[in-house]
Write a structure and sequence with these properties.
The structure is a homodimer of 735-residue chains. Chain A has 735 residues and is of the alpha/beta class. Chain A folds into three domains: 170 residues, Transcription Elongation Factor S-II, Chain A (Up-down Bundle), CATH 1.20.930; 298 residues, Zn peptidases (Aminopeptidase, 3-Layer(aba) Sandwich); 223 residues, Glucose Oxidase, domain 1, CATH 3.50.30. In chain A, 39% of the residues lie in helices and 18% in strands.
């Protein structure tokens, strides 16, 4: 029996005529078609989805967020266990088979965090976040002090150098101005990339320590009204955050590539390459002003000038600071929640996930994602209660330890890689689920159309438009970078479709895609959000600024659940491989052009990859065509499942077993976080970075790994074409 | 006898072969040629110029600046008379025939300037400029308080609305945000145009009063170190300045178009259309912060956010201010200094000028221009003492009352228009002569090459390059707008030549060009200059920041004097009419395209002007060709003088006797200050503004005036061609 017969008890005619042509041509979906669904299945799916969308509600979301933000629940603390238990119980109450899965990880907690300016005058710094009468949470003594997770302990006194955002380009400009940070304390503002990259660069340039601060021009009063009178960071707000070198590998620093179970072999901390080596701490804008007012030396370049009321200088000058950090490192517990709604086809998983640990209260990050996930879970549970049975199994994951470095998700993926690779069709992530009304998504190119399709069927609360149309409108009007979060706004898509970004790093999709090759999507609604990783990211903030009606958390639950239903119930999982191949041809061509600019040998080295990319496009087109031909007639169930697994496994062909040069944990040849760009994705990272470093030996190796990966994927697509042709031929009434 | 024979006692062969071809082709000047000079005259001119360049020196400039900045010398005060007398005596001591010419003008002085915030809390504002121990001048009690000249007296209490720079676009954006200033006090930051335009727009939009302030993002600590530790405006610094509607007409408000001599007929002040009608005052950044912190209402658009440590709002909200201004208006005296160095050809004037009045000490504005002018004058005097006699007469003017609204120059030009139009070949202005090391110039298109040529022969003190090459380099590297002054940086020239701007308004060249049609140039060296119109623009500022060695004041003296010598001694005055005509063709085409976009009738209306511009180009080419042919043979002196006068008078052909629509004082059809853009030049202003206003009737009138002007100029160039041909034919050995 084929997949459809498992529901209807009849043979399923697999018709892909609607699926791939739509995906290829980019035509808008017509009202009576859904990618991946056979026409006569569409009506039932629409009814199911409509029923689903009617269930999530704002009152539930609000109550859940109130519960989730009722205490600080940093990973490694008992509050994190309590949160996990509550979530497990919630999913159980929805009808899920929910379990807590426990690992441990090498995790710090701050024992002492001291900073003072010692010259030209003595001033105590490291001031705490201000309490506001409007919001009792802001005086909660349980909130952890400002610290950067995975900073080493240390103590030093040194002059200060201002390094702007502390990026590669900033250090180059610093050098051209004749200033370096050797032996100095570097002070960098947050923004323009992952803080772990700032720490790595400060370390590489010989800084004695690093201070990170929030400049009002980036997410504070220069941008807009500040908390509690607006959504932006007040002068006392501190951005906590990990500086783990997740660009090297995420997860428990002592167990790269294996799950940190009790018996796992562990590295000595000194051997862990994702651990920073120089003391690093975050401060608020008011403390930064005291230091920067005294930094002295040359004037900072004009675009290094931030929003503090002073003229920025580079230093070194008069200002000298004394920093003392004592960090308590221990193996601490992680509590992942895995909640499963078993389907008829229990060997095919559609996965959703977000983390539950928070730096403090975590209303937007991650609570708003969790409320959406809970409402999606509750609604799916209700459907089951009303008689529905999922076709494929739906798995909802609530991760612990994300904030420290994707700990919970990485350990779980490392523990379950083989099973995941044989079963998971897709992983859909959300993190800062709702910080405002602007829909934003990143996805593999094969999955972009699914996100577009689903958002055409969900209403946008504020505008009355469909989410898709509100998204398009926002993409067309909004300017460059978003303030307040580490994310970049996705550039408008030249095709006129709503734009989706590439998957970088910074949340739990990373181990799924980069380590296990599971096709992934990351979703959120964004907005004016300046309280990231501060005590102010709490219920009051969400209720007054982020999502006062909680309707966007409902909309996010609808989008998440709709994707689960599309992938869970589809007759053929709606991956768009021709679109994927086309994007890859462009990306490989970009790298080919860069290589050619280096020289003839480099050009020759990249040529096979170019051919392989063209080959991949041809294979994707053939597979698409074969699936399209396989139409309107029943297909045997075993052949159908075989096609499903083959489709899901194409992504794994892009993994190189040896990983990227210098960072073997990262297996994906096409996507990784940039070694020096942080959150943002690097496409074809091995080749890309080899060319940037002008490292010909690495380029040869990476180009060859890329070519092999593209050829493997072509072969898998060719297999799919053959499978489809076989299925076509073996049909009782084959034509 | 021709002009050269007057020196050498022989007939001069007038060869223009070198002159016009160079100007047309844009070839670099070769070492042994000078535009406008017959080859055998070049060597003598070079020797003369070299001798001239050797005379100006930094010590003289420094001593003169110390004298000029020894007391505040605002126009209308006795100190202004003392400055004029000292200057007259200086020029007399150099050998000039120097006189003080006196006019009066209707001028205000502040009696009472009060500002306080009355809601939400009571705060006294209008705080004075801070005194610094480093610089005794900053505690000089004679400095006038911060005020805007030509504000009416008045008193009101009203809520505040923030209008960003207070430009046309800002009021449009304000309207789109549903806010207006009717009955409110508008607060605008300085920058992006003339403050008189801000006052006019606030008045037109119904504001009860206007506050102007200096935002640190525009010329203060956001941009760089502040006085006395750097060249930028400290938080207490106030930009004084006139808000006279000089875009309507400059000069004494009561005597437009006639000299304000004792017997002149005067308007009632209520009838003067260049007098603002709403109370306006300037404040410093620290007072502005108090108000803006309390303005309330909607958040300002992101690009309205300045550099104060607060989130900018539009209002109206809580903030309410009480303003009281009492201005003492009287007929006050003006003391222009006119210093003449009589040449052999005393009916041909080469004119240089800058003003001597200052808001307070005026080291950069105008003292640095005055020291340069004095050194140029002293050097010319020395040449005379050593036996040289100028060919054409050189006139140096030191104007009074520029700061109030070009009073001294306008009255003098109005008094002497007929003589000027028959005698003046060129007027070369400088104002803020030196505020840094970057050469900058504006000029009529016919005069741009002269400026380029001269700067190829003057050394740039800092770089060791020629001024021309340093200028090119700066133009290529520097970014957009200059901070700190009202001037805009000139955009790079697409031809690869050093770029010169168009002449707008804001200094004393305006009556010469716009009212009398005298070809003009404006010159300066610019730089980091944040103390404009404040008490801090003093000797200490210049000695520490603007021009510590005084070498740029020497370089400016050299450039000024070299232009005087090139125009004074040239065998044919080196106007480049083909280049002028080419620029005009472009400008007329631009307006034609704009008119076409309005409709067919508008296009038809502009077509004759397009034809006339093409005609002008043809005439310019023919005149140039005829002058080129007139080569290598002596020309009769009377014919030669006739050609000189004809060349100088071409510019006057562009004047329309009736003036521009709505502002009849402005006679020039090609250049005027923009009615709503202020300092920056509006090219073809009548047509341009009619199209902007979509005023077809005015467009018809202005297009016709433009066409007539272009045709008149063509006719004059055709006359020149004929004169040259006649001169050629009348040569003893005509070929």
């Amino acid at each position: 029996m084929n997949r459809f017969s498992r529901r209807l008890g009849v043979l399923l005619p697999v018709t892909c005529a609607l699926l791939f042509p739509l995906a290829i041509s980019g035509d808008p979906q017509t009202a009576d078609a859904i990618s991946g669904f056979f026409p006569f299945h569409v009506e039932a799916e629409r009814q199911l989805e409509a029923k689903f969308r009617g269930i999530p509600d704002a009152t539930h979301a609000e109550n859940n967020l109130r519960r989730l933000t009722s205490e600080p629940h940093m990973s490694g603390t008992d509050a994190s266990r309590r949160t996990a238990e509550w979530l497990r119980d919630q999913y159980r109450s929805f009808g899920f088979d929910a379990q807590i899965v426990t690992y441990t990880a090498w995790m710090p907690q701050p024992r002492e965090v001291k900073l003072e300016m010692t010259k030209p005058t003595r001033e105590r710094l490291a001031s705490p976040e201000t309490s506001f009468d409007e919001d009792a949470s802001t005086s909660d003594a349980r909130a952890v002090v400002g610290f950067n997770a995975y900073s080493p302990s240390g103590e030093m006194t040194a002059p200060v150098v201002y390094v702007n955002y502390g990026t590669v380009e900033d250090y180059q400009q610093l050098a051209s101005l004749g200033v370096d940070v050797k032996g100095k304390v570097a002070i960098a503002r947050y923004g323009q990339g992952y803080r772990g990259i700032k720490a790595k660069l400060a370390e590489e340039h010989g800084a004695a320590a690093l201070i990170l601060y929030s400049d009002p021009a980036d997410d504070g009063r220069t941008v807009g009204n500040t908390y509690p009178y607006g959504p932006w960071r007040p002068m006392s707000g501190i951005q906590r955050g990990s500086i783990m070198y997740t660009q090297q590998y995420p997860g428990d620093p002592l167990t790269p590539g294996v799950a940190s179970t009790p018996g796992a072999k562990r590295l000595a901390p000194a051997d862990a390459t994702n651990l920073p080596r120089i003391p690093t701490m975050p401060i608020n804008a008011q403390d930064a002003a005291v230091i920067l007012e005294n930094v002295g030396g040359k004037n900072a370049p004009r675009d290094w000038q931030g929003g503090l009321p002073l003229t920025y200088h580079i230093g070194p000058g008069e200002a000298q600071v004394h920093m003392k950090l004592v960090m308590d490192y221990q193996e601490r517990p992680l509590y992942d929640v895995i909640a499963t709604l078993h389907g008829t086809s229990d060997d095919e998983w559609v996965m959703l996930g977000n983390h539950h640990d928070a730096w403090v209260f975590g209303a937007a990050d991650p609570g708003s994602g969790t409320t959406a996930m809970l409402e999606a879970g509750r609604a799916l549970g209700e459907l089951v209660r009303s008689g529905w049975k999922p076709h494929r199994t739906i798995v909802i994951c609530q991760w612990d330890g994300e904030e420290f470095g994707l700990l919970g998700s990485t350990e779980w993926v490392e523990a379950n890689r083989a099973e995941l690779q044989s079963k998971a069709l897709i992983y859909v992530n959300t993190d800062v689920g709702v910080s405002g009304p602007n829909f934003s998504a990143s996805a593999l190119p094969s999955l972009k159309d699914v996100v577009r399709d689903v958002t055409r069927d969900v209403n946008d609360p504020n505008t009355g438009l469909r989410v898709y149309d509100a998204w398009l409108r926002y993409a067309a009007t909004a300017d460059g970078e978003e303030h307040g979060t580490a994310r970049q706004k996705v550039a408008a898509d030249s095709s006129g479709k709503a734009p989706l970004g590439a998957l970088g790093a910074g949340s739990d999709f990373c181990p799924f895609l980069d380590y296990a090759g599971i096709p992934a999507i990351d979703l959120s609604f964004t907005g004016d959000y300046g309280v990231y990783h501060s005590i102010y990211d709490d219920f009051y903030w969400m209720k007054h600024f982020g999502d006062p009606t909680f309707n966007y958390q409902v909309a996010l639950a609808q989008v998440l659940g709709m994707i689960a239903l599309r992938f869970g119930e589809a007759d053929i999982p709606p991956y768009n491989f021709p679109a994927y191949a086309l994007e890859l041809e462009h990306s490989v061509t970009d790298q080919f052009v860069r290589a050619s600019a280096m020289g003839r040998a480099e050009e020759d080295t990249m040529e096979p990859a170019l051919d392989a990319a063209a080959h991949l496009s041809a294979s994707a087109a053939r597979a698409s065509q074969a699936l399209r031909t396989l139409a309107a007639e029943p297909v045997d169930a075993s052949e159908s499942i075989q096609i499903d697994h083959a489709l899901a496994a194409v992504e794994q062909a892009f993994l190189a077993p040896e990983g990227l040069t210098g960072r073997p944990w990262f297996k994906h040849t096409l996507y990784a976080p940039g070694s020096y760009t942080g959150y943002s994705a690097e496409v074809i990272p091995g080749v890309n970075e080899a060319i940037t470093r002008k490292d010909f030996a690495t380029l040869r190796r990476e180009a060859s790994a890329l070519t092999d990966a593209l050829m493997r994927a072509s072969a898998r697509l060719d297999d799919i074409a053959r499978l489809a042709q076989q299925a076509e031929l073996s049909k009782p009434s084959g034509h």
